[in-house]
Structure formats: C-alpha cells, structure tokens
Design goal:
The chain is built from six helices and two strands, in the order βααβαααα. The chain has about 150 residues and is mainly alpha-helical.
C-alpha cells in the first residue's frame, strides 16, 4: 500500500486550521489534533511517509476530507501516452498511471502528484501553466501588435 507524504499531512493540517480556526489561539479542532498526532510521530521517528492503511481512522478521515478538496487528475487533455510515449508530455504520468488512475488509492494518486510536481518537466508545469494563470485572472495577452507612436 502507498504511503502518505509528510507534506500532505501538513497541508491537510493547514487546510483544517483554515476551515475551523482555533477560537482561543490555543485549542485545535479534532481533525487537526488527529493529524497532528500522526505528524508528530513522523517527525519524532524521522519518517517522511505514513502508510495509508496504518493511519488511525480519525486522522485518515481528516486527511481524506482534505484530499477531496484537491484536484484529482493532473491531466491537461494533451496525452502523449496515447501516441506511444511511456511518459506523458502533458501531465508527466507514466502510461500505467494514466491507464490505472481510476483504481489508484488516494495515497497512490498523491505519490504520483508529488513525483510529477517535483520533476516539473510536464507541460502542465511550464508551457500551459502561465496561460492558465492568465486566463484564470481574467487577463489575456493582446495578440494585436502595439500601436505605432504618433
């Protein structure tokens, strides 16, 4: 079974802290406490991953709620594995990862996301990332040439 990386546990803690902030600056919601216990043990034992199946139920439930708020597939609808590439130029997943995505566990999907994000060579992280940010912000580059000065 796949492991959940400590950075995902930390992201889930921060997500829950934002959703259910401490009323007094000291106490934390049950989800943060459950995840923090796992996080603390990982730090103490110097582990970077927690086994998905070995995670306490409350912590796993809190992690899965965070996971459900993240994008599922890294696909950008430019799949080069369909043309014979072993590694997709669009999203960075292997042929097997693309084919088996629907049956991968959440931790397996997050491991894939982590690998392709750290690698950062897929088009989703370079050629199209800037365009997506521009379009999402409502600004598009002006295709017309600049006006001649008078």
């Amino acid at each position: 079974m796949a492991g959940i990386h400590i950075t995902d546990i930390e992201s889930a803690i921060n997500w829950w802290r934002e959703r259910r902030p401490s009323p007094d600056g000291i106490s934390a919601c049950a989800e943060v406490r459950a995840l923090a216990e796992v996080y603390a043990l990982m730090v103490y034992y110097r582990e970077s991953e927690c086994e998905e199946d070995g995670m306490p139920e409350r912590a796993k439930g809190a992690w899965l709620a965070w996971y459900d708020s993240t994008p599922d597939a890294p696909c950008i609808a430019i799949c080069s594995t369909s043309q014979g590439d072993e590694l997709c130029k669009g999203c960075g997943r292997t042929f097997d990862e693309v084919q088996n995505w629907p049956v991968l566990s959440p931790a397996e999907k997050r491991q894939t996301w982590r690998r392709i994000t750290l690698d950062g060579t897929a088009w989703r992280f370079n050629r199209y990332a800037e365009r997506a940010l521009e379009i999402g912000a409502g600004t598009r580059p002006d295709p017309s040439p600049p006006a001649e000065p008078r």
